[in-house]
Amino acid sequence: MSDEKPAREPIVEDARIDALEARLKVAREREEQRNRSQVQGTDANYRSGNRALASLLGGIIGGLVIGFAVDALAGIAPWGLLTGLFLGTASAFRSIILGAKTRPAEEAEGRDGKG
């Protein structure tokens, strides 16, 4: 082909660039470590929300079923159902309020058996 040298010489690796790349790699690893999620699995807020939803649905549905059963057995058409619905809803809200007063750290200690 041609015996002429290329117009530009290839850039030789500089020790400063290697040092910069190493420092960048360490900085990226440190940043990833710092930004990594501290909680494994579901967090306490998600579990708390699921618990509140389950209490609300369980209280309302349980009150409706018990109220309907009382209506069927006693023959007091809407009053057993309405009373059961009211009591089930009140019980659900009481459970949610009591659950909101406890801290997640206290729940973790109670679950681990350390408390």
Keyphrases for this structure?
mainly alpha
Explain the overall architecture.
This protein has 115 residues and is an all-alpha fold. It has 4 helices and no strands. It has helices at residues 15-35, 44-74, 77-101, 104-112. The longest helix is centred in the middle third of the chain and has 31 residues, at 44-74. The chain is rod-shaped, with a radius of gyration of 33 Å. The termini are far apart. The model has no long low-confidence stretch (mean pLDDT 82).
Per-chain topology:
Layout: H1 15-35, H2 44-74, H3 77-101, H4 104-112
General shape = rod-shaped
What is the residue-mean pLDDT, rounded to a whole number?
82
Bin the strand percentage.
under 5%
Tally of strands: 0
Cα end-to-end separation: 83 Å
H/I helix tally: 4
Helix content: over 70%
Largest sheet: none
Rg over C-alpha atoms, rounded to the nearest angstrom: 33 Å
In brief:
The protein has 115 residues and is mainly α.
